[in-house]
Amino acid sequence: MPTGALAAISATLLGALLVAGLSGCVRFNIVGDVKAATPDPTALPSAEAPLWNHAAEVYAESTCPTNAVREELYSALATNDALQIAPVAARGSREFNLAADKFLADPTIWPTEISDDIHLLGETSVQLSASWGKVSEATDLDAMNAIMFPDAQKPFEAANRIRGAFGQHVVEIPACGDLTPQ
User: Fold this and answer.
1) For 76, which DSSP code?
2) pLDDT value at position 71?
3) What pLDDT does residue 57 have?
4) 51, 55, 108, 121: least CB-packed within 10 angstroms?
5) Among positive and negative, which fits the CA dihedral 70, 74, 80, 84?
6) Which residues, other chains included, contact 168 with Cβ-Cβ below 8 Å and sequence gap of 6+?
7) SS3 for 50?
8) If phi over 0 gives left and psi between -120 and 50 gives alpha, with beta otherwise, what is residue 150?
9) Among residues 182, 163, 142, which one has the least CA distance to residue 37?
10) Residue 31: CB partners within 8 Å, gap ≥ 6?
11) pLDDT for the residue 147
């Protein structure tokens, strides 16, 4: 079992990774005890439907890779072996960097209703990329334990609001397996 900061990372990893699973692509229908919003089948699509649909696709493209690396990170952290943690942390860093790029690259693709929350996810993804990058460069567990990670609560709440907004606009976030590789 990891100790120190790595134990804290293990304990809060789900929340931190939600930032960029940050949220939804594995259809976080249940995250802890929080259920994601389900689109109302009786609601009529709005004139903004194309914007919301495109945003849902980009959101999934941003979150699916970070969700995929999450399980690898859990397994690596459980080994308590710096040599196994470092390469997975490097992949995590890359995936969060790519997610940040997608979240922050073009603010006009995000509906106004979720743009502030998307920006928060992007900024947190930048921080997570940097933190995991430092973990990947650390040579031992003590050095890894000294690395700070961003708070997970605010991005988790933002991700819940984003998924709720997609549901209110009758937009389902694509499943990761339904995405076309970029």
Assistant:
1) H
2) 85
3) 94
4) 108
5) negative
6) 37, 40, 43
7) helix
8) beta
9) 163
10) 14, 18, 156, 160
11) 95
> Residue with structure tokens 């293990």?
10
Write the single-letter amino acid at 146: A
Strand positions, DSSP E, the chain: 30-31, 34-35
CA atoms within 13 A on the CB side of 133: 11
**Residue 144 in contact with residue 6, Cβ under 8 Å?**
yes
Residue 97: both structure tokens together: 């960097």
Structure tokens at 76: 């690596």
C-alpha to C-alpha distance for 22 and 119, rounded to whole angstroms: 13
Angle between helices 153-168 and 4-20 (to 10 degrees): 20
AA letter at 87: P
